Structure formats: structure tokens, C-alpha cells
Amino acid sequence: MSPPADAPTQPQRTATARRIAGLALPALVVLAAEPLYVLVDTAVVGHLGSLPLAAVAIGGTVMSFAVWFGTLMAYGTTGRAARRFGAGDRAAAVAEGVQASWLALAVGLLLALLGAVAAGPLARLLAGDPATAEAAAGWLRIAALGAPGLLLAAAGNGWMRGVQDTRRPLWIVLGANVLSAILCPVLVYPAGLGLTGSAIANVAAQTLGGGLFLVALIRETRALRPVPSIIVRQVVLGRDLLIRGAAFQACFLSATAVASRFGVAAVGAHQIGLQLWFFAALALDAVAIAAQSLVGAALGAGDADEARDVARRVTLAGGVAAVGFAALAAAGASVVPGWFTPDPAVHAQTAIIWPWFVALLPFAGVVYALDGVFIGAGDVAFLRTLTILSALLGFLPAIWTSYALDLGLGGVWAGLGLFTLARFGGLVWRWRSPRWLVTGAVR
Known about the structure:
Membrane topology: Multi-pass membrane protein
Strand content: under 5%
Subcellular location: Cell membrane
Oligomer: single chain
Number of helices: 15
Structural class: mainly alpha
Radius of gyration: 21 Å
Family: Belongs to the multi antimicrobial extrusion (MATE) (TC 2.A.66.1) family.
Protein name: Putative efflux protein, MATE family
GO molecular function, one term: antiporter activity
């Protein structure tokens, strides 16, 4: 079946600033849509009180497991599809998306079931008090139903990025999240559903987005049957991304658990800071999405020089963009926390973490850009090892020391600083070596 008229049929392998921007800007909207909705959701729930805000912090942290699997689906599929697209085989690139969608559906249904069964125990494990745990569990039981749609959307984003089509995902993701952003305040306040309304709005956006990506896949190809051998190869080749993601989850789950032990105001402030961090991270990741697609296509076509040029350009772009984000964050230090909650205790805790947030952003911009380069190159084994070492030697010791010595949120965010700087040093070292420049249709 022929591709849509606005979709490229052959890779464009000139890494000009215009080409990178043409892929990155639509991807920016897609990446920013979900965390922007989460920020809206956090602001809506935050005005219900500090306890509902803490409940969403706990429930949202658990739901980040689904986002973790979604990242695996999207990034793993992008790299494989981009290499096949670069080798001139668009049909094979789309086929990677078909098999990734079957995998996404299976994993999503499993996560929805686990969320319904384990919501209570997980919330009690992470929450610092019974009231917060009960509220978080109620939110989580509903929100988990959105996992299949979330993962289907991730798989759809992956294969579309691989064939250098970032415009269709833009309209799908934007439409679903705009609908949810409208539903959330309506269901929480006029409908009187409170936290339940927030969870329903999440499920609505994720289910709609996943359904629309399925429709796009069906329009692209009729070869929709599952092929277990390809699915198994995707799982095996994605194991390093999975392990890397597990290290991230261990870090952020531990950070939320420690923050919750410092009180409701502390975990509320941590939720605000962490969601702003994730928002900045995913927005800055737009150039990394372009890197995944262009690096994968260049190496699939056997052009190592082009891949190196893409790496240089996106690293520079990521660093410059992150400095801009840091300047905006510094300017909004006294204003932004008030968007999420009127509670002065939460504001006081937010002031503790804000300098860390601002100072780390420029380093994070380079880290995210180089992550995209190496994922596109298929060099995820190195990313896995670097992330594990950074977590074990930096983040986790720092935050649990913070808990043991009662250092508060400053200690938690010092751990995030060690984690970011360790990855920065390792990625720059790898970037300067030739080891990641392996050519071929599939690594």
C-alpha cells in the first residue's frame, strides 16, 4: 500500500539545520504534549489540596512504569525502522511498527491488569501516610486502564519517526491531549469527581491516541499479522533499553519514596519539580528524536560521516536549547510554583530544589541529545552500562544518604545532579570515539 502523500518515501541524508528542525519541531510538540498535560493535571489537582497532589505524585510515579515501556517501544522501534528506511526498504520499516504494536498491546493489557490488582500495595509502599496511600491507589486503579493505548501510541510514534514522518504523530498526540486537558478540569470540578476525574481524563487521552495510531498503521499496510520471530528479536535487541529504563525507574521511585518521608509538602514540591524536569527533558529530546531518525538512516545507508555530522549538530542544538530553558526557569523561580498549588509550605520546599533544577538543565540538554544519537546508532549497550553505573555510584547512594541524615529535598536533588553529570561525562567520551559508528541495515 502506498504511503500518505505527505510522508517521505526515501530518507533525506543531508543533516542541515533545516532538516533537523523539520524533524525536531513536530517531534517537540509530540514530546511536550504529554508532560504539558501532566502539568495541567498537577495544577488542577493541586488546587484540591496538598493530599490529592501527593496522591497524584505517588500514582503518577507508578504509572511511569508504563511510560518506561512506552519509551522502549518508541526508541527501539525508531532505531530499527530508521536503519531499514535508510537502506531503502520502507515496507520493512513499517513492518517493524506492526510487530511493535502487537507487543505494545500485549504488554499494555498486562500492565492494566497488574495496576488493578497491585494498586493498593504499591501505593502503601511508596506513600508516607495511609490517607495519601488510599487516595493514590484509587487514582491508580483507573489510570492503569490507559496503559494499552499509551503503549500503542509509543509504538506508532516509533515507526513513524523511523520513516522520518513526524507530522502525523503531531496531530494524533496533540488532539488526544487537548481533549484530555479539557476533560480534566471539567471532570474534577463541575462534575465533582475529584481525583477520579483526573484519572478518567488520563485514560481518555491515552486510549484515543493509541486508537488513532492503529488506524494510521492499518492505512499504511495490510500485513498486520503478528510474526513471533520478529517480536522476539525486538525484545532481545531491546533488552539493553529495558535494563537502562529499569535503572531510571529505580532512581525516580526511590527519590519519590524518600521525598514522601519528609512530609506531604516535600513530596508535593518534589512532584512539581520532577514534572517540570520531565517536561524540560522531553521537550529538549526533540533534537534527539531527529538524531535517532537521521543517524539510523545514515548508518543504514553506510554513511558514517553523515552520522557523525548529525551527532555534532544535535549536540550543539541540545546544549543551546537547554541554556534557554534554564534562563526561563531561573526567571520564573518566584512565580511558577504558584501555578500548581497555593500552599506556602509546598512553595518553601520548592525553593530548596529550584537552584538544582536550573543549574542542571544545560548539562541535561547535551545528555538527551547524545542519548538520541546512540539510540539511533544502536549503541544501547553502552547507554545501559553508563546509566547503571551512574545510578549505583551517584543517584541512589545520594538520596538514601539524604534520608539517613535527614538532609531533605536538597539531598534528593543532589543525587539527581550526580546522576546527570556522570552521564554527561560518559556520553561526551563515547561521542569522541568511533566505536558507535557501525553501518548496516540492522545492527
